[in-house]
Structure formats: structure tokens, C-alpha cells
Design the sequence.
């Protein structure tokens, strides 16, 4: 059967549904599934919080007997391997669906092509690649961790009209307005982890949580690049570490490195004292060279982190940009002027690195958001 506009319409709905649980399904991807019979949706679901049950089994259960002879629209190839639950391909076969339409083939070697093969062997018609570009975008974090062994990395920053991202010695400086800030809160809510350098952590004393009404429970893991464990015990991050996880990335040879914006501990005993104090406050200390993202990112992937937002400051942004490990850039441009003492932005709209495509512009009040992405 050839792909029809109806197929694209239902797949677009499944992709929108899949975004509901982004950042909340642990190591599993957030997948959307619709069961459609005679042009009517009779079952729908998104991967459950924490990753189970999968979308297909929930949608099939909702459809019940109406699933027999129906079409299933799934944003990612149904799994074919036995894990904690039976394969979703087996469930689709058992419920008697007649056709399965897939957006993206799963790169996981345990699944890739096998789920499709199981379905076809059972006599089910399968069409794959429907709205694939849109499906890959919604699954970007999962696909990146599977194919590159690291999280999908978004660099987010706001630039003033005079090209600054803050002011020296002024702590947090509001550059964008409330509409743009609300959009950033939504992005945080669908991201596994957020990362800043120790200079930003000390100068701004940020909280880095989701504060939008109704989304507070979706705050990401907070990560600080802190070679010498200079994060103050009185910081907001440390004080809330038992409520929302905080990971401090310390150097494996901390005594040889100078901390960004902090004081270098004089000896190993002082380092050990700082580590013990942070851990006593609920902070997790990880020893992995914080200024080598090509080493750090795979380490984060092994912890189940599939998406990471780099939010500050200029030194940390340049670190990831120069390493070529940014997948998406979200550049907010605001009409405010910082003036004297401003901290220069690491880049602007005129010097976006090669390999990035401009994917869209949105306005939030007076603030402009330009988004750039690399191909997956």
C-alpha cells in the first residue's frame, strides 16, 4: 500500500503525542502510538513515565478488540527482543492488527529491522519512513545515544543587542523577557540534564530547576563542571541537592588544575574535605576530566542521560563548540543593552559553525529565537 495523506496525518499526531513524555522515560525513548480503525483513533498512548509500559501495549489495550484489522502508527520501530516485558511486535501480532506504519527504524542492534521482520512474517503489512525527518527530530536524544554513545547536546544562550550574555560581577542578568523564559522552562522539562561551569555556578548561584506551574516535578539533573570542588555549600544547587539531583564533575587530577572562578584547594586533604562535605549535602561527585567533553559525554550516556542542555557560561559554551559536540543551538536575541562590563557572547547569528542548518525562527514577546541543528 502506498503512503497516503491520512498516513502522514496520523503519524504527525503520533509524533506530537510522543513529545508528551520527553525527558521522563529514563533510558527508553518516548514513543507515540495510535491504533486507527476505519479512519477513527481507537487507541493511543505514549511511553509511560520511567519507560514502561511501552506505547504500543498501552494503545493496544485501550483499543481492545477494535485493534483487529486496524492500522498502528508508531514513531519508532516496535521492539523485537525480550527485556523486562515481551516484545511490542508480538503484542501487535497477538491483537491482530493488519498494518503497521513506522516513522523511524530503531538503530538498536537488538531491534533494527527485526521488529519489521517479525511483523511481516506474521502477514502484517508494514510501511516505514513516514515523516521520518520529523520522527527523527522527536527521537533525537535516543538516536544520538544509540548511534554516538553520548547525549544529544543543546547549547542555549541569550544575547543582548550589544552581543553580551551577562555582566561581570553582576550575577544573573535578565536578558530575555517572561515569554522567552517560559519557553526555556519548557525545554528544561523535556531534557534529562542541564550543565553549567563552576564560574557560572558561583557568579550566578542558579537553581537550574523547572519552575513553570505544573512542570516543577520535571526538573533535569543538574551538572556542574567543577575541577577543584569549589561549589559553595551555601549555593542554591547544594541546598536543593536532595530534592533535585546535582552531579559535580571534578578533575581526576584536581590539584593540577585551576578551577574556573574558584580557589584551587591547597592539597589533597582539602580536596577530600570538600568532597565529603558536598556528598554529605546530597551532591554526587564524579571524577572525570570536566574539560574533555569527548570523555565526559559518553560517561553521562552510561548513566542513562540521553539529552543535555549546556546553559552557561561563555567558557563552557566554547568548550563544547570547539569539541564539535553541540547538536542544536538555541540562540535568543533580545533588545536589551548590557553596556560596560558585559561578557561577550561565544557566538552570534553571523558566526554559527559550519554543519548547522537554520531550522526556524520564533518570537517570544520582543525576543527572537533562532534554532540551528546538525543532521542526525
Sequence:
Amino acid at each position: 500500500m502506498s503512503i497516503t495523506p491520512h498516513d502522514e496525518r496520523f503519524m504527525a499526531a503520533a509524533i506530537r503525542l510522543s513529545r508528551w513524555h520527553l525527558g521522563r522515560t529514563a533510558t527508553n525513548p518516548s514513543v507515540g502510538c495510535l491504533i486507527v480503525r476505519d479512519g477513527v483513533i481507537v487507541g493511543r498512548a505514549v511511553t509511560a513515565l520511567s519507560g514502561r509500559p511501552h506505547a504500543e501495549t498501552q494503545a493496544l489495550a485501550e483499543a481492545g478488540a477494535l485493534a483487529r484489522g486496524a492500522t498502528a502508527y508508531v514513531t519508532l520501530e516496535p521492539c523485537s527482543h525480550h527485556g523486562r516485558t515481551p516484545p511490542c511486535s508480538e503484542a501487535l501480532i497477538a491483537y491482530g492488527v493488519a498494518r503497521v506504519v513506522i516513522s523511524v527504524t530503531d538503530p538498536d542492534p537488538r531491534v533494527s529491522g527485526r521488529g519489521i521482520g517479525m511483523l511481516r512474517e506474521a502477514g502484517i503489512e508494514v510501511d516505514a519512513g513516514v515523516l521520518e525527518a520529523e520522527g527523527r527530530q522527536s527521537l533525537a536524544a535516543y538516536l544520538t545515544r544509540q548511534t554516538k554513545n553520548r547525549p544529544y547536546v543543546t547549547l542555549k544562550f541569550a544575547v543582548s543587542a550589544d552581543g553580551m550574555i551577562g555582566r561581570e560581577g553582576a550575577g544573573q542578568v535578565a536578558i530575555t523577557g517572561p515569554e522567552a523564559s517560559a519557553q526555556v522552562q519548557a525545554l528544561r522539562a523535556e531534557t534529562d540534564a542541564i550543565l553549567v561551569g563552576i564560574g557560572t555556578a558561583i557568579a550566578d548561584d542558579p537553581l537550574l530547576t523547572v519552575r513553570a506551574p505544573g512542570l516543577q516535578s520535571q526538573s533535569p539533573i543538574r551538572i556542574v563542571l567543577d575541577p577543584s570542588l569549589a561549589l559553595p555549600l551555601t549555593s542554591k544547587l547544594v541546598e536543593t541537592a536532595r530534592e533535585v539531583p546535582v552531579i559535580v564533575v571534578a578533575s581526576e587530577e584536581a590539584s593540577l588544575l585551576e578551577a574556573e572562578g574558584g580557589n584551587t584547594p591547597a592539597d589533597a586533604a582539602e580536596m577530600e574535605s570538600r568532597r565529603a562535605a558536598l556528598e554529605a549535602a546530597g551532591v554526587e561527585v564524579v571524577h572525570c576530566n570536566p574539560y574533555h567533553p569527548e570523555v565526559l559525554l559518553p560517561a553521562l550516556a552510561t548513566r542513562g542521560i540521553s539529552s543535555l542542555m549546556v546553559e552557561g557560561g561563555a567558557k563552557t559554551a566554547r568548550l563544547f563548540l570547539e569539541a564539535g559536540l553541540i547538536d542544536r543551538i538555541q540562540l535568543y536575541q533580545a533588545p536589551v543593552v548590557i553596556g560596560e562590563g558585559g561578557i561577550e557572547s561565544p557566538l552570534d547569528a553571523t558566526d554559527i559553525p559550519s554543519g548547522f542548518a537554520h531550522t526556524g525562527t520564533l518570537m517570544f514577546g520582543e525576543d527572537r529565537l533562532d534554532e540551528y541543528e546538525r543532521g542526525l
User: Anything to note?
Assistant: Residues 255-263 have pLDDT under 50 and may be disordered. The first strand starts at residue 32 and ends at 37. Residues 5-18 form the longest helix (14 residues).
